[in-house]
Design brief:
mainly alpha, Rossmann fold
């Protein structure tokens, strides 16, 4: 399960005020928060969990598209460009499952380590895992989903 980072009282109150909103659909965010406010909260998470002061390039646009507008987002970017933050930050704040497809096992394991270091719940699958490891991941997902 994702662990929400420590926030200021103002930030927490903004989230708490939306928690009961019927429009929230199970998310801690609601339609009452502006896109600018969402980005502000995401930026707090970026600083506290990833150690960066600001979003780079199109990161903010991708976060708004997926995390706020709730549209699917495909992000193709160079290695080291900040893709982990793009999918991890909304996954921390919103309910549900986030699925990320990565092309290389080494990249999968690197992202896994980065997220585990930040205490973000994560599992991964790839073709080189043993049967018992695959079963553990699938059981973990079923427990999370149900």
């Amino acid at each position: 399960m994702p662990i929400v980072p420590v926030m200021s009282n103002e930030e927490f109150q903004a989230l708490e005020a939306c928690a009961g909103d019927e429009e929230a659909n199970g998310s801690v965010f609601c339609n009452a928060l502006t896109e600018e406010r969402h980005l502000g909260l995401y930026n707090v998470c970026l600083r506290r969990m990833f150690g960066h002061q600001d979003f780079r390039g199109v990161q903010a646009d991708a976060l708004l598209e997926w995390g706020v507008r709730r549209r699917d987002a495909v992000v193709v970017w160079r290695t080291g460009g900040g893709k982990t933050a793009i999918f991890a930050i909304p996954a921390i704040f919103h309910d549900g499952l986030t699925v990320v497809v990565l092309p290389l096992i080494s990249l999968i394991e690197d992202v896994y380590r980065q997220l585990m270091t930040r205490r973000i719940g994560v599992v991964f699958l790839h073709h080189q895992l043993r049967a018992d490891q695959c079963q553990y991941v699938l059981v973990s997902l079923c427990v999370f989903l149900y």
